[in-house]
Specification:
The complex is a heterodimer of chains A (259) and B (318). Chain A has helices at residues 2-31, 40-79, 86-124, 127-133, 138-176, 181-191, 194-221, 227-257. Chain A has 259 residues and is an all-alpha fold. Chain B is an alpha/beta fold and 318 residues long. Chain B has a domain at 29-143 and 215-296: 3-Layer(aba) Sandwich (Rossmann fold). Chain B has helices at 37-41, 48-51, 98-105, 128-135, 153-164, 169-182, 198-209, 228-244, 256-262, 280-284, 289-295, 312-316; strands at 25-26, 29-30, 58-69, 72-83, 87-91, 113-118, 121-122, 138-141, 216-220, 248-253, 265-270, 273-278. Chain B is globular and about 70 Å long. The N and C termini of chain B lie far apart (60 Å). The chains are: A mainly alpha (259), B alpha/beta (318). Chains A and B meet through helix 4 of A and helix 4, strand 8 and helix 5 of B.
Chain lengths: 259, 318
């Protein structure tokens, strides 16, 4: 009994310690913001690495998600004779929820895992130690550009996802199922509120950008310098990011649309 | 291989025949003999070394150093001095804490006890800014080379210059090519680290370690896993760079013959402390069984072949 309590206590302390280290790392990364203007090339390279290289998978996923939404939405709405609201339904679902959330999950799986493995391997092969011994802070030179690159890329990717999703919904709804083209777009235009819907989607994707890149970088930086350590860190990075995104999505939705 | 010989330096004693007068005794370990004053007078014009010069010529002073990992004591009361201008070898069997000692000197680890003073200042009491400033005068060759894998050989060498200087690109190019020429790899400047052999990667890493013209270079197992030709090249480079660039070199290694042949002074670590210290010939003549076993590579002795375990019969019969 006492042993179990002691184990529980040790586990809790370890978790708190990790949380503390993660927050200290975040503070260090944010400290690197000041040096970003002096080295724009580092930031541009990471926006390319995280954003441009994820754009294709995001666009294709968005298209298919939109097509499924169009199909499912049509079957439900046509039961009430409201199939002309399909455009609004597809756009609202994508802009408010699916765009930011699915984009964050995809980025966590594609770019987040790559970031964790990259930083973890840099640690395992002494590259981070070598930077420190060259009097270069790896948090500011290596981690910070990746963090801010992810921060910039995530809302843009979410926008691409939503736009492609709307196109997918239009293809299925208007192209295949015969929903009126004008009604599809006019209902969407009338029902989507730029302040409420678009802004909340943008805020969500920005928050998810912070969360996913922070978790990925911390897991890589904190990984044991062994092949097993890097492998575990990469798994943890994806799992923790996915759980954090879904949980935080609920909180943000409640805060945005609660009243 | 394109290696240049050491530049003539009238103020500097010939390598391996440095004046050995005096010699303190500290904590049961022979401290380095004093170098003569001319050695320090010939230090590069970085200012820092001469300004903080210790009267005895000691660049790195370690006292009562203790370090633990979990429940295991790695270092337990290590006392040693590294004389400036010398090549000092720190040797001992694998797992004895040699690399840990190097990490403690570079401020990468914090000790549980004792002090490490570089240029008269305790490394572990420095602020982060001061520690980074010290590291610009301290090069380190990692066992793995630790080259940045996404940068070419040229960019790896240019990296510290770009980070710490405002030199124009034309000057950076000249400096990088000069260092690459010194290690015989000017022709490999456009290769990526993955395209280099182990020996070449080690030489590029060595060139990068001296890129900022440091006063001290720390070598972590520089000969490990190298073929005989690469070992010969590295030995020659370490010795010649030390003399030509007026460096202080600390080599951590378990390669007895290679290290002893280029070091001016050797410490042998064992059981968490210094077991012997002296000129290579003195350490070879050491009468202690432990030191003799290590220096002569005897398979058994005070350092047991077997890791501590219950009797074999007990284990086999359950």
């Amino acid at each position: 009994m006492l042993d179990s309590l002691a184990r529980l206590g040790r586990g809790g302390l370890r978790t708190l310690e990790r949380l503390g280290r993660a927050h200290l790392l975040l503070v260090g990364i944010l400290g690197g913001l000041a040096s970003m203007p002096a080295r724009p090339g580092l930031l541009v390279a990471q926006i390319h690495n995280i954003g441009v290289r994820s754009a294709l998978i995001i666009a294709v996923s968005g298209l298919f998600v939109g097509m499924v939404l169009g199909l499912q939405g049509y079957y439900v709405l046509s039961g009430f004779g409201a199939e002309e609201s399909l455009g609004l339904m597809v756009a609202a679902s994508l802009v408010r929820e699916l765009g930011p959330v699915v984009t964050a999950l995809l980025v966590a799986g594609r770019a987040g895992s790559a970031l964790t493995a990259e930083i973890g391997l840099m640690g395992a092969t002494d590259q981070l130690s070598a930077l420190k011994m060259m009097a270069v802070d790896p948090v500011q030179r290596v981690l910070a550009p990746r963090f801010f690159g992810g921060l910039v890329a995530m809302p843009l990717l979410a926008a691409i996802f939503s736009a492609m999703g709307i196109m997918g919904g239009w293809l299925v709804g208007v192209g295949l199922l015969g929903v009126d083209d004008g009604a599809f777009w006019s209902q969407m235009q009338a029902g989507i509120d730029a302040h409420q819907d678009v802004r909340s989607g943008a805020v969500k994707s920005l928050v998810f950008g912070i969360l996913v890149t922070w978790i990925a970088l911390f897991q890589g930086y904190d990984a044991l310098p062994t092949s097993e350590g890097v492998s575990r860190a990469t798994t943890r990075s994806v799992v923790h990011s996915a759980l954090a995104v879904l949980a935080l999505d609920f909180v943000l939705t409640a805060l945005t649309f609660g009243d | 291989m394109g290696l240049r010989g050491p530049r003539a330096n009238p103020l500097r004693p010939t390598p391996g025949r440095v004046a050995r007068a005096g010699g303190d005794r500290t904590s049961g370990t022979d401290a380095h003999p004093r170098t003569d004053e001319t050695t320090r007078a010939s230090s590069p014009a970085t200012g820092s070394v001469a300004d903080t010069a210790d009267a005895s010529g000691v660049l790195i002073r370690i006292r009562g150093l203790g370090f633990r990992r979990s429940d295991r004591s790695i270092l337990d009361g290590v006392d040693l001095d590294i004389q400036r201008g010398r090549v000092t070898g720190i040797m001992g069997p694998s797992g004895v804490g040699k690399t840990t000692l190097l990490d403690l000197i570079g401020g990468q680890l914090r000790p549980d006890a004792g002090t490490v003073e570089v240029e008269g200042r305790d490394v572990h009491r420095m602020s982060r800014r001061e520690l980074f400033r010290l590291r610009t005068r301290m090069g380190k060759l990692f066992q793995s080379g630790a080259l940045l894998t996404d940068l070419s050989v040229y960019e790896n060498l240019a990296y510290p210059l770009r980070e710490h200087t405002l030199l124009p690109e034309s000057m950076i190019r000249k400096l990088v090519l000069m260092k690459l020429e010194a290690v015989g790899l000017r022709g490999a400047r456009d290769l990526m680290p993955a395209q280099l052999s182990g020996g070449m990667a080690r030489r590029v890493a060595l060139a990068r370690a001296v890129m900022l013209d440091p006063t001290v270079v720390l070598y972590d197992e520089p000969f490990a896993g190298q073929d005989p030709v690469s070992v010969g090249v590295l030995m020659s480079l370490i010795r010649h760079l030390n003399d030509a660039c007026d460096l202080t070199s600390v080599i951590v290694s378990h390669d007895v013959v290679e290290t002893a042949s280029i070091a001016d002074y050797i410490y042998v670590l064992g059981n968490g402390r210094v077991m012997a210290g002296g000129a290579p010939a003195e350490v070879r003549a050491e009468r202690s069984d432990w030191v003799r076993q290590f220096m002569q590579a005897l398979p058994d002795g005070p350092v047991h072949f077997h890791y501590p375990a219950p009797r074999l019969e007990q284990d086999l019969l359950g």
